[in-house]
């Protein structure tokens, strides 16, 4: 009797456990069914979101999009500058104009001094003027007809009273070969005085 009661009790407990197990299985099945149902309802929305995100994210390894930059316009180089024309050769300096001397005693002495300087004949304006005033008082046509030279037929002539043989011997090239020419007379007389006395400046009397 006791065994029978224990067996009945054990069977009762097992039934209760089985019932609980079946109920639990039923709950799990219902939950799974609900989960599947919920998942089925949201799948399209989730898929759309995934696609949008995939489009927004560049593919792995793909080069980033680069904004197209317009090609620069070709550079237009300026035409090469023409070679500068050579500078014209400098014009030679014009020859200085020949000095113009007045046709008087001052001009004759100054012209004679320029010629003497070019020929290396010494003499000064003062020395020449002093001797001219003593010999002819500045008269280019003066002539001595009473001294020993005149007696010998070779009278002294011109500003510095030069005889013809002396004029011929000491005439300076570039002046007229004319004892009466005032400039030629001065230059020849100064050339003679330089040879005899060192310079007309050293002559203070008849020479």
From TrEMBL:
Residue intervals of the Transglycosylase SLT domain: 128-204
Q: Which Pfam families match?
A: SLT
Q: Which domain of life is it from?
A: Bacteria
**What SUPFAM superfamilies does the record point to?**
Lysozyme-like
For this entry, the protein name equals Transglycosylase-like protein with SLT domain
Q: Please tell me the species this chain comes from.
A: Nocardia caishijiensis
Lineage from the top down? Bacteria, Bacillati, Actinomycetota, Actinomycetes, Mycobacteriales
């Amino acid at each position: 009797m006791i065994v029978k009661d224990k067996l009945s009790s054990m069977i009762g407990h097992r039934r209760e456990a089985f019932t609980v197990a079946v109920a639990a299985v039923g709950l799990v099945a219902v939950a799974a069914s609900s989960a599947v149902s919920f998942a089925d309802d949201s799948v399209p929305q989730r898929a759309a979101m995934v696609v949008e995100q995939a489009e927004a994210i560049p593919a792995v390894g793909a080069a980033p999009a680069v904004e197209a930059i317009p090609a620069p316009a070709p550079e237009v180089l300026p035409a090469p500058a023409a070679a500068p024309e050579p500078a014209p050769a400098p014009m030679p300096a014009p020859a200085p104009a020949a000095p113009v001397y007045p046709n008087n005693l001052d001009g004759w002495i100054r012209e004679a001094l320029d010629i003497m300087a070019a020929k290396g004949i010494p003499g000064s304006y003062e020395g020449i003027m002093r001797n001219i005033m003593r010999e002819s008082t500045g008269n280019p046509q003066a002539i001595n007809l009473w001294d020993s030279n005149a007696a010998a037929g070779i009278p002294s002539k011109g500003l510095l009273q030069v005889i013809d043989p002396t004029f011929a011997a000491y005439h300076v090239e570039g002046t007229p070969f004319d004892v009466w020419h005032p400039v030629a007379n001065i230059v020849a007389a100064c050339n003679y005085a330089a040879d005899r006395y060192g310079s007309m400046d050293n002559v203070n009397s008849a020479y």
